[in-house]
Amino acid sequence: MLKYTFKRILMMAPTLLGITLISFVVIHLAPGEPTGAITDLNPNVSLETKERLRTLYGLDKSIYEQYYNWLTKVVRLDFGHSFASDRRPVIDKIWEKLPVTLILNVASLAIILIISIPIGLISAVRAGGLFDRLTTVLFFIGFAAPSFWLALLAMRYFGVELNLLPISGLTSLNYSELGRGGKIIDLVRHLLMPLIISTLGGFASLSRYMRSNMLEIIRQDYLTTARAKGLPECTVIIRHALPNALIPVITILGLSVPTLIGGSIIVESIYALPGLGQLFYMAVMGRDYPMIMGSLVIGAILTLLGNLLADLGYAWADPRLRDTAFK
Amino acid sequence: MNLKLFLTRFAAQRLALIGAILVILMFMVSAAAGRLAPYDPNHPEPRNRLSPPSSGHILGTDALGRDVLSRLIWGSQVSLKVGFVAVGLTTTIGLLLGTAAGYYGGMVDDLIMIFCDLMLCFPSMFLILAVIAMLEPSIWNVMIVIGLTSWMGVARLVRAEFITLKNQDFTLAARALGASDLRLILYHLLPNALAPVLVSATLGVAGAILLESSLSFLGLGVQPPTATWGVMLADGKDYIDRAWWLSFYPGLAILITVLSYNLVGEGLRDALDPRN
What residues does each domain of chain B span? Predict the structure, then answer.
């Protein structure tokens, strides 16, 4: 297990290098200079100051030198200082916002799993039945509905009309006065709507996937054998078919990490949640280059970690791989 | 597969047929936008601001007194344009890179696939926003950026098809007859790989329309006062407590459009699948 994990982590190194290269190229190929955001609109900036800023940020060097210098800092997770008015180190700001995004995404992954596995299972077992057809249509609709639209409608209905849930932010104004239990309830109430919205897009595709997996497995001979032994249908499905249908789901979960992280930009900026998505959106709006590059690299690293966990999970769950991988 | 067989198989699927009819309807609406729209989409009526749906304005008016229905109708043009141009770009890049990787293999294949995997590491919204941040937000930039950041699926599809096709007997026969690389690719391999590309392009149109509306909603896509569904939703956001019709209808339009293309795409997949 350890050896395989270690090998998998080592294999990530070249990918990480590639990620930094793409992040760097994306920002530097585009027209306009990174310092332009500070100097262009400010009439008091003299040519001299512009030159000094260029030297300060190393923009007078060749592009290779710039990449090398940036890379040597990024290896130590030093992404420089934000261009925003607080001028704080990029990595500090990211660490501060990361928990909200992680909690939101891990929780919605959990909800997606809990809902879509039974739904996929039932639609496959009763393929072509009323439940199957109904969920198929509903999922097509859920898949096509823009999340920001659903978020707005939910805000209007649950927030304004029924006045059930708070419509923005992570905590209420009186948060600091609440007891521990009150604090948790307050947080959950604030996170409930964003969670449901970020879950809706995901469980449509996962249930469809689960359904087709199950359909494939139900046809296999070993299930006929199980039935022939006289096992009740319920045991056949739950004990014999389900585990094998679940294994590939791990891969899909890993693959859905970038979509979820990307989706948090929209959910967090609509519900004013202080997470990585909102931070990145603000950085883009303010052309905060160090912040953009930092978030881009961290976003990709999160995706890589998601894939790593999925691969390890797969190797652990699939007996065919377990024997070779974990020797 | 001949056309008649394909059409029968496609039409046999009720949902796909509904999707196709809706797609055609939407084409007609955006082509006839000038005649269909009851008002000028950008003409404000200051005395008629935020009026709810009524007989004069079937879907109500927005904060500047512009007719929501007319803006929706004109907005469909933007969605169509973005969908098709972005997917055209995606498919072209995907076809070129996928063909090169699948046909030539070796180093070329390795390099292209490494690049592909790296691009897939980035949450696509992050990558798209980062590029857009450097450019002026405009409809052309949105289409180009969506195109440049979503070709990976097509490239992988085409590569996989080429790898299975290039070692089959008909390819060897054509090669034995002295067909050049270009001829082999264009006349023997590509036509056989087109079915999955067509499916993914149809689904891609839906994806691009959804992406454009998210970008415009975030203020980083098509800029106001151009009437697009995403811009309309962004405008309606501030009035969500008072004027629900400003947000409801543009979102519904996006939903129906994306849904139709997805239904057509799934229908094509089933109709073109030789295993069925």
Answer: 71-272
Yes or no, beta carbons of A32 and B122 under 8 Å apart: no
> Exposed/middle/buried for A42, CB within 10 Å: 0-12, 13-18, 19+?
exposed
Domain B71-272, architecture per CATH = Orthogonal Bundle (1.10)
CB neighbour list of residue B139: distance below 8 Å, 6 or more residues apart: B78, B81, B82, B221, B222, B226
Q: Which residues of A2-32 are buried (b: 16+ CB within 10 A; e: fewer)?
A: eebeeeeeeebeebbebbbebbbebbbeeee
Best A23, A27, A152 residue to mutate vs chain B (most B CBs within 10 Å): A152
Name which of A16-20, A87-91, B88-92, B202-206 the model is least confident about: A87-91
pLDDT tens for each residue of B192-201: 888 889 989 9
pLDDT computed for residue B87 by the predictor: 94
Contacts (Cβ under 8 Å, ≥6 apart) of B81: B139, B143
Q: Read off the pLDDT of each residue in A183-209 and give the average, rounded to a whole number.
A: 85
Q: Domain A91-325 is in which class?
A: mainly alpha
Q: What is the rounded CA–CA span in Å between residue A262 and residue A264?
A: 5
In this prediction, residue B90 carries a pLDDT of 95
B145, B131 Cβ separation under 8 angstroms:
yes
B247 and A CB contact within 8 Å? yes
For residue A26, what pLDDT is reported? 82
Tell me: the pLDDT tens digits for B12-52?
888 889 999 999 999 999 888 888 878 788 777 777 777 77
Measured CA to CA, the distance from residue A87 to residue B125 in angstroms comes to 25
- So what's the pLDDT on residue A45? 66
Facing B244 at nearest CB: one of A15, A27, A156: A156
Dist CA B108 CA B246 (whole Å): 51
Selected residue of B134, B248, B254, B262 to mutate for chain A interface (largest A Cβ count, 10 A): B134
CB A59 within 8 A of CB A66: yes
Indicate yes or no: CB of A26 within 8 angstroms of CB of B118.
Answer: no
B122: contact with A, CB 8 A cutoff: yes
pLDDT of the residue at A41: 57
What ipTM was estimated for this complex? 0.86
Q: Which residues of chain A does B256 touch, with a Cβ-Cβ cutoff of 8 Å?
A: 144
Is A156–B241 a contact, with Cβ atoms under 8 angstroms apart?
Answer: yes
pLDDT tens digits, residue range A11-52?
888 888 999 998 888 877 766 555 655 555 566 667 777 777
Domain boundaries, chain A: 2-75, 91-325
The answer for B 167-206 residues in CB contact with A (under 8 A) is 206
- Contact across the interface for A261 and B123, Cβ inside 8 Å: yes
